[in-house]
């Protein structure tokens, strides 16, 4: 007997309760992460002085024979940033907040759908679409905004620090890893959709 790919499979009641508890926890964690980033954005826009980490290239004294030379690559600068730099840092934080809340709500939607009567393939397609694009676009835009904000901050404060700052920005591993995860989620979504169509088209042929 063939099973339709759109069939509704309801978990047992204890499983439904467990899944919904996990869904609620996921939503709360997403809200907490988003709130932290929104608070950072507000702090960047309203605080008289803010602290940012900027790239630097300055030599440091070497007190040991084991080291030939040493240098610093980042410095934490507390200052009154120019308005353009503040806005860019705030935009970066807001993009990360949006990423966190969209992904958390997408996962919550998927888990809640599994525990209810919504067809799983439909929920999975919506989850992969929302979470995938959020993971791709959010970190890329957020990293770019904060990077340009760092460049502007370095340009504005470089003279006061003796010219040790580098007018540029670096991207850590997460800046590339998270968008790659987003592309993987989108790819899986298209694979699941293709498998669903194939199963529906071949239903009853075997």
Q: Estimate percent helicity.
A: 55-70%
Instruction: Please describe the biggest sheet, giving its number of strands, its sense, and whether it closes into a barrel.
Output: 2 strands, antiparallel
- Total strand segments: 2
Instruction: Give average pLDDT, whole number.
Output: 83
User: Poorly predicted ranges (pLDDT <50, ≥5 residues)?
Assistant: none
* Structural class based on helices, strands and sheet pairing: mainly alpha
Order of helices and strands: HEEHHH
**Overall body shape:** elongated
- By DSSP (H or I, 4+ residues per run), the number of helices equals 4
- If strands are numbered along the chain, what order do they take across the biggest sheet? 1-2
Distance between the termini: 10 Å
Bin the strand percentage.
Answer: 5-15%
- Round the Cα radius of gyration to an integer and report it: 24 Å
Write structural notes for this entry:
- It is a single chain.
- The protein is mainly α and 206 residues long.
- Helix content is 65%, strand content 9%.
- It is built from four helices and two strands.
- It has helices at residues 13-46, 83-114, 120-157, 173-201, and strands spanning 50-59, 71-79.
- It has a two-stranded antiparallel sheet.
- α1 (13-46) runs antiparallel to α2, α2 (83-114) runs antiparallel to α3 and α3 runs antiparallel to α4.
- The longest helix has 38 residues, at 120-157.
- The termini are close together.
- The model has no long low-confidence stretch (mean pLDDT 83).
């Amino acid at each position: 007997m063939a099973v339709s790919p759109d069939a509704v499979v309801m978990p047992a009641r204890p499983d439904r309760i467990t899944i919904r508890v996990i869904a609620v926890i996921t939503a709360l964690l997403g809200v907490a992460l988003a709130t932290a980033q929104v608070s950072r954005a507000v702090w960047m826009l309203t605080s008289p002085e803010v602290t940012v980490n900027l790239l630097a290239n300055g030599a440091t004294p070497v007190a040991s024979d084991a080291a030939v030379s040493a240098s610093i690559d980042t410095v934490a600068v507390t200052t009154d940033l120019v308005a353009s730099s503040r806005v860019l840092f705030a935009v970066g934080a807001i993009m990360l907040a949006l990423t966190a809340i969209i992904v958390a709500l997408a996962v919550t939607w998927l888990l809640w759908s599994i525990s209810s009567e919504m067809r799983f393939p439909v929920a999975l397609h919506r989850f992969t679409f929302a979470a995938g694009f959020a993971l791709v676009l959010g970190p890329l835009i957020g990293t770019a905004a904060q990077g340009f904000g760092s460049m502007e901050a370095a340009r504005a404060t470089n003279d006061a620090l003796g010219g040790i700052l580098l007018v540029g920005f670096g991207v850590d591993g997460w800046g590339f890893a998270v968008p790659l995860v987003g592309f993987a989620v989108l790819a899986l979504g298209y694979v699941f959709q293709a498998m669903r169509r194939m199963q529906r088209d071949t239903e009853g042929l075997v």
